[in-house]
């Protein structure tokens, strides 16, 4: 269940934000718990709860502690929460970047639409984080998306991960076997040979004598299973 905090000192606005969030989450069929705070001081007074919030909607201009100052304090205890600043004024201050705010939302007639767009962006990022893998390679810990992997090569007792060209290092090595990683990599990966596991999204050309990958490497293919492998690749390339 996702925990969401709303911090605003105007009831008409925190009631509206609460209503829009509930409507959005109900439409997504996602469970959530929404807590309302009327000041930054009140929110910061719930120190243990701060660590549990995934999303925090924060009014910038409140009596007492400003939303910016409250957000700076929040980051000391919760570095991962999505902070959304809400304001009645057009404010292009760079302060929000210091706390990694994901959005500035204007309190106007389009607020519901803005919240919907903001929540969509947040759930997209949550999905990306859930999909990421962390592997302790010989070269060090690397966190990456499976789609960044062009193919995995089995070489003696090691797995050689070959990454796409926009990665800073093309190849990483880790001790193990295909069985250790195939489920984590996901359904777009196909075993085309006893030594190669490829990402269908990175296939450029498929021929009976080999598969050309997006990084230019040509990998051998099991001839006896060529048709099955070709059909599987085409099915998974979208």
From TrEMBL:
UniProt cross-references to Pfam families, sorted A to Z: LytTR, Response_reg
Keyword set, alphabetical order: Phosphoprotein
Modified residues (4-aspartylphosphate): 59
Annotated coiled-coil segments of the chain: none
Domain Response regulatory residue range list: 3-122
PROSITE patterns attached to this UniProt entry: HTH_LYTTR, RESPONSE_REGULATORY
SMART domains named in the record: LytTR, REC
Residue ranges occupied by any HTH LytTR-type domain in the UniProt entry: 133-235
GO molecular function, one term: DNA binding
Highest taxon in the source lineage: Bacteria
Key word NADP present: no
UniProt-listed PANTHER family: STAGE 0 SPORULATION PROTEIN A HOMOLOG, TRANSCRIPTIONAL REGULATOR-RELATED
Record's function text: May play the central regulatory role in sporulation. It may be an element of the effector pathway responsible for the activation of sporulation genes in response to nutritional stress. Spo0A may act in concert with spo0H (a sigma factor) to control the expression of some genes that are critical to the sporulation process.
Protein name: Stage 0 sporulation protein A homolog
């Amino acid at each position: 269940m996702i925990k969401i905090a709303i911090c605003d000192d105007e009831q008409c606005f925190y009631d509206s934000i609460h209503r829009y969030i509930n409507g959005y989450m109900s439409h997504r069929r996602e469970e959530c718990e929404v807590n309302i705070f009327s000041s930054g001081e009140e929110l910061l007074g719930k120190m243990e709860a701060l660590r549990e919030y995934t999303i925090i909607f924060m009014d910038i201009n409140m009596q007492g502690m400003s939303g910016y100052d409250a957000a700076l304090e929040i980051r000391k205890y919760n570095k991962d929460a999505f902070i959304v600043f809400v304001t009645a004024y057009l404010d292009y201050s760079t302060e929000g970047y210091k706390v990694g705010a994901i959005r500035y939302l204007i309190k106007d007639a389009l607020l519901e639409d803005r919240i919907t767009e903001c929540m969509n962006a947040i759930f997209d990022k949550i999905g990306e984080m859930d999909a990421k893998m962390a592997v302790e390679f010989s070269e060090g810990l690397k966190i990456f998306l499976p789609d960044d992997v062009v193919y995995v090569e089995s070489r003696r007792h090691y797995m050689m991960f070959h990454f796409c060209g926009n990665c800073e290092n093309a190849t990483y090595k880790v001790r193990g076997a295909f069985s250790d990683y195939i489920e984590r990599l996901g359904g777009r990966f196909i075993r085309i040979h006893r030594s190669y596991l490829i990402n269908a999204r990175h296939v450029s050309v498929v021929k009976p004598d080999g598969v050309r990958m997006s990084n230019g490497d040509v990998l051998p293919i099991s001839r006896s299973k060529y048709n099955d492998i070709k059909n599987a690749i085409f099915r998974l390339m979208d």
